[in-house]
Amino acid sequence: MSSKPDALANIRIVLCQTSHPGNIGAAARAMKTMGLRDLRLVRPKKFPHAEAEAMASGATDVLAAATVCDTLEEALTGCAFAVGLSARKRELTHELANSRAAAEHAIQLAASQQVALVFGTEMSGLSNDELIRCHQLAMIPANPEYSSLNLAAAVQVMAYELRMAVLGKIATETSTPFPLASHDDVEGFYRHLEAALTHTGFLDPAVPKRLMPRLRRLFTRARLEKEEVNILRGILKSMQPPPRD
């Protein structure tokens, strides 16, 4: 079995703009019970906080090691794949998977690369801008008449599914023969693509409409490999004028 529990070390849990510090602590506890330790916090409203430490109970070490980030992009730096958790399907978002399938795929990739599970705020979840930076949308198949899960409870469900994916020997090898491009490589490609399309006149920055979100969706479905991003950026470079002396 190549996907040992060590694959869990390549999984990071990202909480975006969490309002209640108790939820951060409870999420840390949920993570530790399932063998997860990498917690990233994007602009938490109150952290560090005594309530977070109280709710973490015996997982204060996970809490103390948490990384606080200014942006989601910073929290995803170095990741090859990011799963955004949502209670509902969104317009112009990515492939939708249930929590179990998403966890299985995450563990397959985490055998060799960094993977993130991204959770939004308690009130509104992930914004569309945050979701568009993820590669897959996942939903916990809760009661459709009352599908609202507490943030820490959602983290616990996904942490359990990740652990079961490892212990059930679901992942015997990585899902792709070549490494996927990292989040920062892909974001650099999108910036390059936008600049090139603006240069050719195909994209009007004053009236961009939904061109870039749709292109993001297209390339996300492709699961770009590192070498493929290099090829695409080479093509874009050939479309742009050479630098002046």
Question: Can you describe this structure in just a few lines?
Answer:
The protein is an alpha/beta fold.
Structural class of the secondary structure composition? alpha/beta
Distance between the first and last residues' Cα: 56 Å
Please name the CATH architecture of the largest domain: 3-Layer(aba) Sandwich
Beta-strand content estimate: 5-15%
Domain count: 2
Would you state the CATH class of the largest domain?
Answer: Alpha Beta
- What is the fold named in CATH at topology level of the largest domain? Alpha/beta knot
Spatial ordering of strands, largest sheet: 3-2-1-6-4-7-5
Shape: globular
The string of secondary-structure elements, in order, is: EHEHHEHEEHEHEHHHH
H/I helix tally: 10
Average of per-residue pLDDT values = 90
CATH H-level homologous superfamily name of the largest domain: SPOUT methyltransferase, trefoil knot domain
Beta-strand segment tally: 7
